[in-house]
From TrEMBL:
It comes from the Bacteria. This is YceI family protein. PROSITE patterns: PROKAR_LIPOPROTEIN. It holds the Pfam family YceI. Gene3D superfamilies: Lipid/polyisoprenoid-binding, YceI-like. The keyword Signal applies. Keywords: Signal. Residues 46-231 form the Lipid/polyisoprenoid-binding YceI-like domain. It comes from Chitinilyticum piscinae.
Length: 234
């Protein structure tokens, strides 16, 4: 394996467990605190997610003394499935998301350009293909056993203009509860929700891959951009 290629091959140990100044640390989920299929759905307006306008984006960074030999990576998906119910009191609203991990796309040129100078150098096709294989393989997301990521809202708190969402997140067979800031805007029959936060792989049982005795590795922290666009159902 060429050193310059190695972080491309390991650049996908990813996803959701958060630590930022504006979001609470994730906690192990307990049966008393969560329900992956809620029995009670609040009264409100139902919205359908528009996949082509919605996106989950993961920014994966190189680490270690030899980090200069690797690449940072942008991993994204528009295949977001689920439902949103907006209650009259916005804090009573709920949403559920499913993201098939096989739908992730790695290092698309436009996405890398949008993320700026840290992503300016585009890995070659071989490196991108290797990253994708390793991302879906047993050592990272293990798509064969855990084909999707699930995110379910447990509670919303705060003013309408600055809400915090407490989430139940299931990834790689591990569930966590975490609170993140979200921005929600309604425009006619269209709903927009966005969030930006940082995640840590190890909290979901994923060990960041490394080579060269740890000299070149993937950073445990991954930045997450989430955008939901949904249309009111008639």
């Amino acid at each position: 394996m060429k050193p310059a290629l190695s972080v491309a091959l390991l650049g996908c140990s990813l996803l959701l467990a958060c630590q930022t100044p504006t979001a609470s640390l994730s906690q192990p989920a307990t049966a008393a605190a969560i329900s992956t299929d809620r029995a009670v759905i609040p009264a409100g307006v139902a919205y359908a997610i528009i996949p082509e306008a919605s996106e989950l984006r993961l920014l994966v960074y190189r680490a270690g003394p030899l980090a200069r030999l690797g690449h940072n990576h942008v991993i994204r998906s528009n295949d977001l499935q689920g439902d949103i119910v907006v209650a009259e009191d916005l804090r009573q609203s709920q949403f559920r998301l499913r993201i098939p991990v096989a739908a992730f796309r790695v290092d698309e040129p436009q996405a890398r350009q949008e993320e700026g100078q840290e992503f300016a150098i585009l890995p070659d096709d071989e490196a991108i293909a290797g990253t994708t294989r390793n991302m879906l393989g047993e050592r990272v997301l293990d798509a064969g056993r855990y084909p999707e990521i699930r995110i379910e809202s447990l509670a919303l708190s705060g003013p309408d203009w600055g809400l915090d969402a407490t989430l139940h997140i299931t990834l790689h067979g591990v569930s966590r509860i975490q609170t993140i800031p979200v921005a929600i805007e309604r425009e006619g029959k269209t709903l927009h929700a966005t969030a930006l936060f940082t995640i840590r792989q190890r909290e979901f049982g994923i060990t960041p891959l490394s080579v060269l005795g740890g000299g070149l590795s993937v950073d445990d922290a991954v930045r997450v951009r989430l955008r939901l666009v949904a249309r009111q159902q008639d």
